[in-house]
Amino acid sequence: MRPAAPNDPAWVAGYRILGRLGSGGMGTVLLGRGPDGALLAIKVIRAEYADEPAFRRRFRREVAVARQVTSRWAVPVVDADAEAPSPWLATPFVPGPALDETVATAGPLPEASVRVLGARLAEALTAVHAAGLVHRDVKPGNVLLAHDGPRLIDFGIARALHETALTATGSILGSPGYLSPEQARGLPVGPASDVFSLGCVLAFAVSGQRPFGTGPVEALLYRAVHDEPDLSAVPVGLRSLVARCLAKPESARPTVAELRAAWGEPGGPGEPGAEAGGGWLPAPVARLIAERSARMLQLPPVEPTAPGGVRARPSRRRLLLGTAGAAVGLAAAGGGAWWWSSRPTAGGAEPPAPERPLLTVGLQGDLSGPLAEVAAAHRSGAELAIADHNADDKQPFRLALRVEDDAGSAEEAARRARLLADDDAVVAVIAATGPEATGALMTPCAEARKPVLNVTDGSSAHLNAVHTMARPLDALQLRPVVALLTSVALTGPVVIVDDTTLYSWDITRNARTALGDAELTVVPEVVPADEVDRSAAVARVLGHAPGAVLYGGEWEAAAPFAAALAEAGYRGPTIGTRGMHDPRFLDAAGPAADGWLLVSTVTDPLAAPGAEAFVEAYAERFDAPPPPGAAEGYDAVGVLARCLEGLDDPGSVSHRDVVEVLRLTRHRGVAKEYAFEEENGLFVGGGTFFYRVEDGAFTFLGTEPPNSL
After folding, report:
1. In terms of pLDDT, which residue wins out, 170 or 531?
2. Cα gap 198→179, rounded to integer Å
3. How many angstroms separate the CA atoms of 20 and 9, rounded?
4. Residue 424, Cβ density class (10 Å: 0-12 exposed, 13-18 middle, ≥19 buried)
5. Which among 459, 382, 377, 371 has a CA at the least distance from the CA of 428?
6. 125, 238: one domain
7. What is the CATH number of the domain that holds 361?
8. Which of 173, 519, 594, 676 is the most buried (most CB within 10 A)?
């Protein structure tokens, strides 16, 4: 447990909040104490999800069905409020560690313990399935260990089996590495899917290894569908049954009832799992549970203060971070005046006093490869931010920029990242490079605990403990597109075109899910990026009489597709994503580019409201208007500066200090407001922008969807 964050509530309904257990994509999990003294884990859903009526309906249904799950080994929902401004649900708190933490700390569990684990999780899933649910996210992090047995938690993404609208084809929910083949393919799932995931969990528990390995999300999904699991480290006594759980055909997997029968009722004298003293876990794990239980007994009781009373005072570090965030918010209320209001004219001030400590920010970019133009924009924006920061003599430290060019090469990226990782003066690295290079630079930085602020790559493949994303995930670009398509009258289905590249696969998979959940008619079509003659593919697309065409790929394949579509006479709505927001699309597509509506994660500072001061300063320093990407580079330095300001002593800061607090930082920048998921470093909030191609140029439309297609 960690202390509550400054923006966490002091009370949720009648439960006093004692601290934070974690946070994720959907919300925050808090530790609360009820009026009777019982400890509860309270999941509070983010307000932006609560604003969506469809989500609130799903949440209401899920809570109602989850209350029907009754098993000693499944943690029940004991209270909830689906109508609250931020919906929440509460379950009993289990002080034991999660299975993944246990294996990481104490190593794999012995075979006898895993037999107990399997039998009791099978019993928990029996209750889940009897209630008409499929859990969908059986993974080590959702299995807590207690003295008397495991507990299966988190029905937050479970779905009632009979709610077909909530299990639309194309939906992928759960955790890669533990997903069934049918989940990985986006197909409807049943109880057999949970059995597959349970097999993955048991293999991990006894061997410490995932049966389908590690790596990017897309690779894990592919292996679940096509590859056989690696069970070589699973003991022979368990291997056969685990292998049956991991069978590709659903019909070949055992039922949870068969699993319970195969292992029997564990834990009795002389039976598997019964150790000296009756415990089912090895001694180091049992001690860990006992220590955590003892700490829970030391937590304060509920005070007689009414809900909404004064909470415990935060630490000085959190207080500083909270104050910095509040200052940003207050300044933002004054329109454009928030923007480095105390800075002198850019580039015209004398260097600050030398006694101020100097902190170095690294920038690794593709400055001489395919993304050279974009990386150069990020670099110039970062240089302006450094100059503005140093010109403000009220700042307690100076900043310097160390730039490394990886040319977009994975091999060169690893070498350059090692230089930055080994430089103790570099407190953080801004990544302004392509996907392959981003993946390569992560390993040296992760080994050195050097924080990486990623401004370019939008995939989820490189998430780790040091990675923070200063832009939305690629898939989350689609949220405003879904809002647009559901707000207009379409004359036919939405045809979603996948060009078979990795980027397109991720975009189109999520588009099918989101639009299907919005009850729009969706037709998928595949047009390979390397297909020379696209006329036949375009004929298939037009054969569906589309009300709109959504293209999932990037500019290289989008340009000839747009040309073929225009040549075939289609004049209806066409929509693309960030991968098409590239001047090369305009050049390659020519007049066929006109009319395309694009959603992007890069702003246009020349048209964005409130960016006038930035544009003026940039033009003064570089004698040119800021190109796309410059504002994001400027903001990346601003985020890091805001983070450093929140530390107790910036002058003695190390990169390890920055890792601890970067994801807690909030900053209002030129392009957007920045906030991050504490657990995984993902960007939180909006951060998407609409453009229309008009007369061969991108016309900035703003952050809100246009009124019409």
Report:
1. 531
2. 10
3. 10
4. exposed
5. 382
6. yes
7. 3.40.50.2300
8. 676
Report pLDDT for 54. Answer: 67
Specify whether 185 is located in the same domain as 154.
Answer: yes
**CA angle centred on 63, ends 299 and 484, rounded to 5°:** 115
State the average pLDDT over residues 701-705: 91
- Mark whether 668 and 528 lie in a shared domain: no
**Residues of the binding site:** 43
Residue 306 lies in a domain: no
Beta-bridged to residue 700, according to DSSP, are 691
- 136-140, 331-335, 504-508 — most confident range: 136-140
Report pTM.
Answer: 0.61
Q: How far apart are CA 190 and CA 181, in angstroms?
A: 12
Taking the CA atoms of residue 587, residue 592, residue 593 and residue 594 in that order, the dihedral angle to the nearest 10 degrees is 120
Residue 549 falls inside a structural domain: yes
The count of domains in the chain is 4
Query: Is there a single domain that holds both residue 111 and residue 247?
Result: yes
pLDDT at 170 over 70: no
Would the pLDDT of 266 be above 70? no
Residues near 559 by beta carbon (within 8 Å), at least 6 away in sequence: 584, 585, 588, 589, 592, 593
Decide if 520 contacts 481 (C-beta within 8 A). no
pLDDT given for residue 545 in this prediction: 96
**Residue positions in the annotated binding site for ATP?**
43
CATH number, residue 158: 1.10.510.10
Q: Residue 341, Cβ neighbours under 10 Å: how many?
A: 11
> What strands lie across the sheet with 452-454, from one edge to the other?
398-405, 358-365, 426-432, 452-454, 467-469
Here the tokens at position 469 are 């994303």
Angle between helices 217-226 and 502-517 (to 10 degrees): 80
Q: Please report the pLDDT score of residue 567 as a whole number.
A: 96
Residues 278, 132 within the same domain? yes
Nearest CA among 534, 474, 473, 469 for reference residue 674:
469
